[in-house]
Amino acid sequence: MILKIYAVNFNEEMPKYMQITRHIKKLIDSGKIRDGEKLPPIRKLSLFLSVNNDTIVNSYKKLQSEGYAVQKIGSGTYAKKKDENRKLKRDYAETFKRISGEDLNNYIDFAGETSCNVFFSINNFKEVINEVIDRDGVNALIYQETLGFEGLRKNINKYFWNNKLAIEDILIVSGAQQGIDIVSKAIINVNDNVIVEKPTYNGALFVFKWRGANILEADMTEDGIDLENFKDILKKNRIKCFYTMSYFQNPTGMTYSLEKKKEILKLAEKHDFYIVEDDYLSELIYDSNIKYESFKSLDVNDRVIYIKSFSKIFLPGIRLGYLISPEEIKEQVENSKVNTDISTSSLMQRALDLYIKNGYWKEYINKLKCMYLKRYTYMEECIKDILGNKVTFNSPGGGFNFYIKINSNISINSDKLFYRCKRQKVLISPGVLFYRDRDDGLKYFRLGYSQTEESKIKRGIEIIDKILSAAEIK
């Protein structure tokens, strides 16, 4: 056995077992380690890499948990190359790299996750940018405050929290993804246990995997996570945190009931874990029965780490959001932010501050809700009328998406549906992207309306219907 290809140039930023895992995965993906090939014995590889045996043991366990290896008792650990989801994820990502600008206009985009730029008044934003530069000059372009621009933090507190916070509690970040990453670096160590919703946002899964956490899943129901499933996990494991999207969860669109939020907050105190609340799209509530009460607003024991992005609903390019962390870990989180990028764009922070202060934010959100309510209602009607008995779904009452289940009488899975739709210039999000075990998502797909006007929605759903009809078992 040639060990030369297993050589790793270690750095200090990541645990060694994770670096070994990542290197072996690349070797398997590239074909340098063949499918079914036996990996080096633990002791032999540990001597070659000058690490202890436990490091190799942890690496092999990680490879097994991610589907890159299988252990045969009494024989050793063997490479496992076949993973259809890996190819799908790559193809899905590559689709949006290749299709952009004018090309995207030729597609019906049901996969987009951000607000449509046609609703955004660039003149208002241009006005505040110019005012900031006239007012602050070169200071508008200089990183000055670790926590973020004080004016923006004050206005976040005033307009979104009714001045109930101290502005020192608010940390400006470069979007929700960075917020999740910062929190993970601050509180999660290798082999810590993290609970996530099943299914969940794959960007969060990536961050937790990178930190070397053990990811435990609890099923989603119509009003949030399955509490019995959740409690069972808590009984058997010591948990560091629970990651949740409290409103219009991605991808299911489900929203937590007030009763369920209160129960989870009690469990967090009882079992000593943090709730990482990703407040996804709570601005876009269309159903009057849904009331806005975040986990954070109900938190009396300082258990919630609240993350809010402006990027999804505002302009993705400005990459802004904010984070509120419990007092006990605030310093760790702030240090994690500094070690990540020192400070978020000063100009964009000042511009957003003025945008909120001048009333443009409220005006924009009201306009957005009005326009998206029309699309939401229209897509809901189209799914019911056109897809009929081929699918089932729950109406989320807000957000950007519908999460749809293909009925058992249709012999097509969501990955195949993705490719067939793509060939007919319709882009969807297959459910397998949102599950650790791809089999759980084979019969689900997500349809979004944020990037697609009503004239295209019906045509796109009719194309999906034809594909499903062709796969219907008569």
Helices and strands in order:
Blueprint: H1 16-30, H2 42-49, H3 53-65, E1 69-72, E2 76-79, H4 84-98, E3 108-109, H5 122-136, H6 150-161, E4 170-173, H7 176-187, E5 193-198, H8 202-210, E6 214-221, E7 224-225, H9 227-236, E8 239-244, H10 258-271, E9 274-279, H11 295-298, E10 304-309, E11 321-324, H12 330-341, H13 346-357, H14 360-387, E12 391-393, E13 401-406, H15 414-423, E14 426-427, E15 429-430, E16 444-448, H16 454-470
Total discrete domains = 3
The termini sit apart by 54 Å
- Portion of residues in beta strands equals 5-15%
Which secondary-structure class do the elements indicate? alpha/beta
What general outline do the C-alpha atoms trace?
globular
Largest sheet, described in full? 8 strands, mixed
Measured as a percent range, the helix fraction is: 40-55%
Q: What's the CATH architecture name of the largest domain?
A: 3-Layer(aba) Sandwich
- Tell me the number of strands: 16
Radius of gyration: 24 Å
Mean pLDDT level: 89
Strand order of the largest sheet: 4-11-10-9-8-5-6-7
Individual helix count = 16
